Amino acid sequence: MVSFKKDNIGSDSKQFIKQDFYSRLKRGLTKTRDILNTDVMELIQGQEKIDENLLEQLEDQLMMADVGVEATQYISTKLSEAMHDNKLYSNEDMYHTLKASMNGILEKSEQSLYIDREKKPFVILMVGINGAGKTTTIGKLAQQFKDSGLSVMMAAGDTFRAAAVEQLQEWGKRLDIPVMSQGNGADAASVIYDALQSAQSRQIDVLIVDTAGRLHTQNNLMKELDKIKRVISKLDPTAPHETMLVLDAGFGQNALIQARQFNEAIGISGITLTKLDGTAKGGIIFSIAQQMKLPIRYIGVGESAQDLRVFNAKEFIEALLSH
Ligand SMILES: Nc1nc2c(ncn2[C@@H]2O[C@H](COP(=O)(O)OP(=O)(O)OP(=O)(O)O)[C@@H](O)[C@H]2O)c(=O)[nH]1
Ligand SMILES: [Mg+2]
Fold first, then answer.
1. Which of 73, 75, 267, 319 could form a disulfide with 26 if both were Cys (CB 3.0 to 4.6 A apart)?
2. pLDDT class for 225, splitting at 50, 70, 90?
3. Which ligand is nearest to the CA of 131?
4. Is the pLDDT of residue 13 over 60?
5. Closest residue CA from atom 5 of ligand 1
6. Does 12 or 92 have the greater pLDDT score?
7. Residues, CB-to-ion distance under 5 Å, ligand 2
8. For residue 242, how far is the Cα from the chain centroid?
9. Atom of ligand 1 at shortest range from CA of 167
10. Strands of 296-300's sheet, edge to edge?
11. Is 125 helix (H, G, I), strand (E, B) or coil?
């Protein structure tokens, strides 16, 4: 009898997917790698000895990639301590210590989103400024959840921007996932209330709620988010189960300011950092992790659904700094 080595096939293909993920991540991070890998490598290798001067130059590189003052200082202090303890003999030692100190910053933010299947639905509220990537991230997440066997519904809570509802409906059609909407100009909270009621009665696993892009200075729109949260919790006091802030990495240090402001205004439970592929400011992730101390759930490194990845600190640093 011929037996199929199911386990082997499974682990081979898993390995393949993992490698594919990794090379996509590495490719996606090209612009930040140009500074944090290529330039830093040249710097370290071009140096005869590891000294304060080298550390200063390294600090400049980190700042150029928008790692930010505090995170740069943390990394530099770790390297300096290692140097004074005579632990930095070679370029490889330097690399190793650099990676370890970066991991010291990022590892605490590595907390993936756990979808509690007891919640029907598990409600994810997506917020952020205009163009950060909210709707696209919703589409990508919806696809990933669906692929993993969860039933998904989307709520078109951006009733503000023209064509926002259509954009979400387009994703719905493509993925064959229901989109609850009432058209442009409708009251966002009422759209979301209806969507949640419908998801509850249909025993949907995950409801992802789109909202209009807004700045913290737009008081009325920030109040609207508060109202949306209140309306959701009327139907399920434990919801929303995730209030996810979507940040465009291309904003660099400004993304950190947005994170602070949204967190103060409505309370954030997780962050997705998008467009790491289009920017040399990918170092902002270190600032966000160190300053916000919030979970970084996903990172976006490209346009396709596969380019939205669960954030993994070690993998990220490896993709950023490996030769
Ligand atoms: N390269 C790249 N592009 C992205 C990524 N995420 C989103 N985008 C693009 O960013 C643009 C804006 O994305 P949207 O999803 O419409 O942004 P939004 O936050 O919903 O915008 P508003 O609804 O106007 O507030 C689109 O062209 C997306 O394709 C990413 O990780 N990488
Ligand atoms: Mg949108």
1. 319
2. very high
3. 1
4. no
5. 275
6. 92
7. 134-135
8. 13
9. 16
10. 179-180, 152-157, 206-211, 122-127, 242-248, 270-274, 296-300, 308-310
11. strand
